[in-house]
Amino acid sequence: MPTAAPSRPAAALPAPARRLLTSTSRHRRTWLVLLAALVAWFCAQARRGPKSAAQPRGPTAHKSHGAALRDDDVGTRTSFPPLDDLLDRARLWPPDLNKPLCDLKIYVYDLPPALRLPDKTVKQCRWSAYNSELLLHQLLVDPTAHASTTSHPHNTLYTTNPAEADFFLVPLYPACFLFDCWVKAGWTKTARCGVDDTYIEPVMRYVREAHPHWNASGGADHLLVHPMDFVDGYYTETSRAAMNASTYLVTVGDVRPAPLGSYFRSFRDLVIPSSTHLLNSYRVNPLDYVDEAGRPLVEPRGAASPHRRDNVDPPTVEIFSPSPEPVEAGLRGLARSLVRLVRHVLGLAHVARLEARTTLAIFRGGLGTAADGERYSLGIRSLFFPSDGNTSTPPFSSHVHPGFSSLPGFDIAEWSDNDDYARRLARSRFGLAPPGYTLDTTRIYEYLAFGVVPVFVGSGRTAGQVMPFARDVDWSSFSLSVPRERAHELPEILERVTDAEYDRLRSAVWDVGRKVVLEGREGNVWRLLARDLCRLKRKGVAAGPEIANN
């Protein structure tokens, strides 16, 4: 087939160009073969994929199976077969959380009415961060407090027969007592309102004298809940002496040197998750904002009411029950129902109502006071907001900087109303978790509930914080950790996290991280607590066969 004449005569071309054109014409077949070989090589490389996936650098890097070998690590690359699955999966960590370590029974004291907190004080406490005292009790003894009674540990853990009990839970709520006291005293936290001589000591005297169980073990098999930052440090030496033979269930585990970690007894106390206003008081339901896989909905199923505190007394501790879809009347409602049905049948139900997580990082929280200065939050939160270098005004920083809040993708503020905060959580990738007055922050559990990857900044395991159920839950599989000395690098660190790494973390948050949220779903908190209690009793953890050290 004749080719079109070039716009410029060949004779007019320079000599090198004429030679290249002549060579191309004479050896057209050779050039075509070379071109085909080049295309085939590129296709083969594409099928093989990259030699190693990009890994985030610095403290965000997480290599659960060790670092991948590069070509220059070894002289000759050798292929080895993968290991077969172990028949004894108990040799691996983390464990199967559905398999209990032992059969355990917990008896809960029924205190006389005169030793119980007034109903008004209990209701007040349900709107505090100390609500975990009440929720743990309710989860264990009330079978209507959770949605699934068939799999809930209530059926196996709780007993009304003290003779068969391994542990005894004392329904003592001193944190709730003090919260009510501080509210009445205008938030004067030095007020005590007689918590020791009118409440703690009479209850503990009853436990010792009215039943034989405390004296039988010296209190070693008794459980007390202390969800305050300084645990039993708020009470007199007499009260502390009456309680301290027992195991404390605490929300702050801190192994830093004294005085910071003075109140946490790592050999005896167990760390539990904190309750949060958003989840455990206002009952804002994550499944109204994200779907069952943790992906954000374009429009929530049911928005949180700003007046919910005034007209709802939360009856249960269940928070993962999505609100029903609103029923629309008339032909319009029928048409929308048919569209939803067709989408469901075709497997397209999520297409029209899901959107991506477009916010890189979110944080809601305070900055302390001028008296705290840069000591609050170990100085970390002073990086979050713009600073003019004046240490007497927020964020109390001696450095001039624009703050992380000025950066694109960072959603940082001191507060939001519940519905707005829930919507923003559903659209955020990472949730920042710096310390406050202590290493613990309740934001962690809001992040996990909404499928947000927690980022510990100067807190978490690498900062001396003992995380809830750390013997059974691999926190590193669904969170990142940035040491305090690199807090100023946080924006760059998050930007370097690859999409593949983020997807792995997000999936682990939804599949594993949510198990530590304080709620009723399947009784996960008591199921995890039971594992630690088995260890305390040394039940189900007896010595195995001798292991040769060779």
UniProtKB/TrEMBL annotation:
Belongs to the glycosyltransferase 47 family. Residues 104-254, 354-496 form the Exostosin GT47 domain. GO terms for molecular function: glycosyltransferase activity. PANTHER family: EXOSTOSIN HEPARAN SULFATE GLYCOSYLTRANSFERASE -RELATED (PTHR11062), EXOSTOSIN-LIKE 2 (PTHR11062:SF281). Keywords: Transferase. It comes from Rhodotorula graminis (strain WP1). This is Glycosyltransferase family 47 protein. Residues 50-76, 299-323 are annotated as: Disordered. The keyword Transport does not apply. Pfam families: Exostosin_GT47. It comes from the Eukaryota.
